[in-house]
Amino acid sequence: MDEWIDYYDSTHTIYASRLHRDLHFEVIARDIIGYIKTPDAVVLDYACGEALSATKVADACATLYLAEPAPGVRGRLAARFAPNSKIRVRSLDELNTLDAGSIDLVVMNSVAQYMTPQELDGAFAVIHRLLKPSGRFVLGDILRPEVGMVRDVLALLKFAATHGFLRDALIGLVSTALSDYRQLRARIGLQRYGEAEMIAKLGAAGFSVTRAPRNIGHNPWRMTFVAQLRA
Asked: What's the predicted TM-score (pTM) here?
């Protein structure tokens, strides 16, 4: 995961435009809010990235932890959300200092593909410790083995056409094809999991799990799972 952390901590071109970037985080925030049951909930966004719409999530809960491994991104988060007393920025290592059974909802979205299976198991163990018995773990944007990059492109183009940045998206796809992201993806690859495989992996980590009817974010070809501590 370290090379991907370095990539996202750099000046990258993963978003086609500022509008694309802003809409990306708005949609994710909307979907996270849909999983918050009560306004007194404590929520953890695991490896949250820039989390530009985190204020909206914080408005829907009591406390929002933004855990981010990239130091540059984490510094920007701390500066951006310093005025908001509901938002607390942490490194992934600092999650070990949080009390066991203290989190109502953990969201890990569009992260698992960048982790080795062993790293993902380690993250599941941390999340298992942090969840309240009644808490939920939402694992989103899981890449499927049978779905390739073409459908990712089509999902992006549909999203772009709907929201008015299609020209920027087409230019961005060309830029991405020539970028460090494409080279890194070709060299390291992204982890993919079938539905049964991910359910079994979460089960081995001590969760009971179901697949959500729709994925977090704009890509319908990817999967989201909702897990709880197994009784």
From this structure: 0.88
